[in-house]
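As a point of orientation, let us examine one representative protein, giving the amino acid sequence and backbone structure tokens.
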Amino acid sequence: MVGAQPDERVGMQEIVYAHHMLKDVIKRTPLIRDSFLSGKYGCNVYLKREDLQVVRSFKIRGAYHRIRSLTAEEREKGIVCASAGNHAQGVAYSCQALGIQGKIFMPSTTPRQKVTQVNFFGGSNVEVILTGDTFDDAFAEAMRTCEATGMTFVHPFDDPRIVAGNGTIAMEIMEDMQAPIDYMFVTVGGGGLISGIGAYVKAISPHTKLIAVEPEGAASLKESFAHGEVVTLDTIEKFVDGAAVKRVGSLNFKIAREVVDDITLVPEGKVCTTILELYNQNAIVAEPAGALPIAALDFYRDEIKGKNVVCIVSGGNNDIDRMQEIKERSMIYEGLKHYFTVQFPQRAGALREFLVDVLGPNDDIVLFEYTKKNNKDNGPALVGIELKYRDDYEPLLERMNRKGYPFRELNEDPILFQQLI
């Protein structure tokens, strides 16, 4: 069973109580002024480093607080959760710490590193079941298990005790911050983080502008705001796995409408650029959802100049196997890598002419293959070109047109891009 829902009020009292319940379990993560980002944007940028939490994300706060509140009967039957990764780790840690058995459903697309960590934190107290492609698929299977077994479902975000546990992040920030906070940027997936943070921040500092940050391909909160009610997205882009949710929580939506000042969407490629910059410039390993708030700063560059800004780095569970994809997405977004199908003229030396007369002095071919394995003369070639500067793109196209090489750019055709690249 899902279990009886507690009082849905979430305010300072509930968050202070959650803080008391969590203080001996979680790490009080640092709030650090980042010199590089502060200089880049001409303001004071502070990072709340939840990537340094005991399970490398904020999720343990809500998960432990919720599970500790179970009755003796509920503990005996065990718990079930659905998660794209970080909530699962918080639940697994809590199950082992409290001696409770749990079944954890995760999308089959979850990065291997997160699955490994769930097993590590939960040990013999948890069973991990990979199912479906999205969080919503895992959620549906988890709910069926609850109905069949009578186990209690621990929701990743749509639960008042989860929200209150998340709100303890804001309590720490407000205690540690010496100056008034002008802007706070928070990742949104299901909405449990921003509703908890917003409930506390707005009670203490109503002038602070709370900015909800969503991935462009999974903008469930923005769509819900636009319709005035919670809506379910038909499809989502799964890359920002920690925030790839088709439907925000009902409680979270209710609180968000009262506390959120603005919503901004960040393209997935921009998130990738930010992940790489955080690693190269700040030595921070952030997962896509953790990098979202920092990626959003570019879109508020003028508004935040001279202000005090806090970004929540919500998690650092990033799989090293994803780094090549992250670099690729970043370069495509920044206009530095382009893929084409090119029809070469049927004459000797056409390929040599392309290399000499079409490629610029700083351009590199990173992929070349014929799309037809037999009779190559009748099929286009697949060509990947890496540029050193974004401004080299238009001259490249002009030279291809001038030299008579018919081409099609795959970056502008998502279906062909997915099929060929």
